[in-house]
Amino acid sequence: CTFTSVKYEGRAPKGKTLLRLYLGGARKAEALDWSDDKVLAAVQQELRQLLGITAAPELVRIHRWRDSMPQYYVGHEARVAEIEAEVAKLSGLELTGNAYHGVGIPHCVRGGEVAADRIMSHLEQAVVAPKA
C-alpha cells in the first residue's frame, strides 16, 4: 500500500487521501483472475485489518498487470554478481534496471546513477589517456 497523496502532493484534493494498493504477485497469482468485486472486497478487508480503515472508497480504479515485476529467486544475488563480473570486463558497458538490485523506482534511480557515474568515469579516462 502506498499513500500516494502523501508521497506526491496534489494527487488528491485537500482533506482526501489517495491510496495505491497492490495484490497478487508470485505468491497469489490467481488474484489476477478475480472479479473486480472480489479484488475490492479483498483490499477493503486488508485495509480494515491492517490500518483500521472502514470507510468505503470514493473512487476505485483496478488495473491488472501480468508479470509486471521481477520475482527474485534463491541465488539471485550470486547470479547478478556473476553477470556484473562478466560485464565489468567489457569497458564502458553497464547494466541497470529492476532485474538486478531491486524492483522499486528508488532502486532503479540509484542503479541508473551508479551506471552513469561509471560510464562518465570510463569516458573521462578515455579522454585523458587516448589509446595509441
**What is the terminal-to-terminal distance?**
56 Å
Order of helices and strands: EHEHHH
The order of strands across the largest sheet is: 1-2
% residues in beta strands:
under 5%
By DSSP (H or I, 4+ residues per run), the number of helices equals 4
Shape: elongated
Number of strands: 2
Low-confidence stretches: none
Oligomeric nature of the chains: single chain
**Number of structural domains:** 2
Structural features, described:
The chain is mainly alpha-helical. It has two domains: 2-51, no CATH class; 76-128. The chain has four helices and two strands. It has helices spanning 4-7, 36-51, 76-88, 105-128, and strands at 2-3, 19-20. Strands 1-2 form a two-stranded antiparallel sheet. The longest helix is centred in the C-terminal third of the chain and has 24 residues, at 105-128. It starts with a strand and ends with a helix.
